[in-house]
C-alpha cells in the first residue's frame, strides 16, 4: 500500500508531485507529504522543504498553497498506515536528524526494530513510530562514513550510501531518496514492491504505478527487484544491487490511461456499478465474438496443449477477487469437470497443499499488485521448479485488470479483464470482469476436454451474450429500488446474506461490500448452514438477504429463508418474481436465467443496496476508512 511519486526536472516539482499523488491516492489516504530540494541564489548546496498533512491529499494541497515547497526535484507519498498512527509525525517523507536526507517508502522493513535499536544506541533520536525512519538515518550515517573515507563526489556518495543502506534492509520496499547536498539527484530503489520510471520531456518521474504518469508520459521502465536507479535532469541510470549498470529499453504504456472523472455520478462506486453493462459488452466483443468455431468457443489465445495437459486447478486470491475465484472454481468443476480449489493467497503461502501433478495455478488480482497473491504465486513456482519434474512444473495464469502490473510481469500467461480503471476502493466492475473471465475459461476447458456437448456450450454462450442488456436494465431498475429500501437499514447493526451453490460466493461478496463501505457488520453463509449455529443470531433487528435463483437449490433456499422469517427476521429476496417468492418482505427481482449465469445478475442489487446504505449514512463511499485499493503489504 502507500503510493510514492518522485521527480527530477526543470519545472516546479510540488505541483507535479501533488498531481501524481492524486492519481495514487487509491493506494492509501491516511496522510500525505512531500519534500523538495532547492538552493539559495548563488549557492550549490541545497535545503530540503518537507510538508506533511494528516488525512486526505487535499489537506496537503492546502498546506502547500499557503507555505509553498520550492524546487525542481522532489519526492511525495500518500500513506496507508502500517507502523504508527495516521498522524503528521508518522506521515512521509521521513528525514535524518539534520533534515538533509529525505525518504519516502512503500512496503515494510521487517528488521526495522533491530536497525532502530542500533541507531538509538548511537544517540540518534527518532521522531516517528514508522519502520521507514531508519532509512534516512542509515543513509546519513553512511554519508558521514564515506566522507571520512575520502569519497568527495557528492553524487557518488549518495549512490553508495543508499546502496549500503539497502543491503541492511530486510522486507519489501519501493523508495525514493533526496539529499540537500545533491540538488539535482534523485535515487530510487525497489524490492518486492512496485516502482516504475517514467521518461518525459526534460523530466524523469518515478511512481508506484503508471497511473501517476497520466498526462506526463507514456514511456516507462519498471524497475526489477533489488535494482536502484539514479535520476538526474540528464537521464536515468539503472544499477543492480552490486552496482553493475543495467541497460534496458523503456516501453510504451499499453492502452489508454484516461484520467477518469465522476461525471454526473455522486461517487465513483455508483459510476462503476453503472459501467458494468459496458464491461460485459466489451468482454463479449473481445472474447465471445460471433463466428468462433465450436471447438474454440472463446477467443483465448492459449494452445490446445495448455488445456489438455491440465488435470486440476488451484486459484489464489484475496477479498473480492477470491469471491470471483469461488464462482470460477464452481464453474470449472461443475461445468467443465476439472477439480478446482480456491485458497486465500495469504494462507496458501504458509500452508500449501501437497504438490499434485499437472496443476494450473491461477492468480486473480484486479490491481495485479496484491502482495499476498504475488508472494503465493512466487512460492508455488519455486517449490514446483525445485522438483525438476515436468509433471509438477509450474503453470501459472494471471487474471488482472492492470496489464502493466507486477502480476503481468510475473506470470507467463495473463488475461486482462479489460474493465477499465476502477477508482472506488470497493471492487464492482472488476468483479464482474473477473467473473466473466472465469466463464470464458470454464467454457474453453469444457470444450477442449469435451466435458460438455456443443449444444450445452452454445447455450451458455448465447446466454452470456444477453448479459450486457440484462445488466443495463437491472442496474436502472435496482438503483431506484435499493435507494428506497436502503433508508430502512441506515441504523442496522448486523445483516446476514444467504446463498447456495454458485451464489454462495455472491452472498460472501455482498457481505464484504456492505462491511467495507457502510461499516455495518455483515456475514455471508451458505443458506443450509444457518441451522447449524448462525440462526441463533436472528431476531427482528437482523435483516436476512437471501439469493434464491431457479435451479437445483431454489426450493431449499426458500425453505432456509422461511426458517429465518419464523425468527422474525426481515426477509429480502434476490430472486425472479413468482408466487413462491411472495414470502419475502421485500423482493429485488432479477430475470429468470439459468443458474449458471445467475451470479452475473444477482450481484447487482446487492452492490447497489450496499452503496445506497453507505451513501445514506453519509460515509466516504469511494475511500472507506482503513482501506486502500491496492494492498501491497503482506
Ligand atoms: O487487487 P486485488 O483484486 O488483488 O485486491 C484484493 C482485495 O484487496 C480486494 O478485492 C478488496 O477486498 C476490495 N476492497 C474489495 O472491494
Structural class: alpha/beta
> Alpha-carbon distance between the termini?
10 Å
Total strands: the figure is 25
Briefly note the CATH topology name of the largest domain: Glutamine Phosphoribosylpyrophosphate, subunit 1, domain 1
The figure for the number of domains is: 3
Biggest sheet: strands, sense, closure? Answer: 8 strands, antiparallel
> What hetero molecules are bound to the protein chains?
5-amino-5-deoxy-1-O-phosphono-D-mannitol
Oligomer state equals single chain
Task: Explain what the structure shows.
It is a single chain. The strands form four sheets. The protein has an eight-stranded antiparallel β-sheet with strand order 3-2-4-1-10-9-11-15. Strands 5-6-7-8-12-13-14 form a seven-stranded antiparallel β-sheet. A five-stranded parallel β-sheet has the order 17-16-18-19-20, with helices on both faces. It folds into three domains: about 5-250, Aminohydrolase, N-terminal nucleophile (Ntn) domain (Glutamine Phosphoribosylpyrophosphate, subunit 1, domain 1, 4-Layer Sandwich); about 260-450, Glucose-6-phosphate isomerase like protein, domain 1 (Rossmann fold, 3-Layer(aba) Sandwich); about 465-620, Rossmann fold (3-Layer(aba) Sandwich), CATH 3.40.50. The chain has about 625 residues and is α/β, with parallel strands linked by helices. The protein is built from 17 helices and 25 strands. A hairpin with a 5-residue loop joins β13 and β14. Bound molecules: 5-amino-5-deoxy-1-O-phosphono-D-mannitol. 5-amino-5-deoxy-1-O-phosphono-D-mannitol binds near residues 319, 373 and 426. 5-amino-5-deoxy-1-O-phosphono-D-mannitol binds near residues 373, 426, 516 and 630.
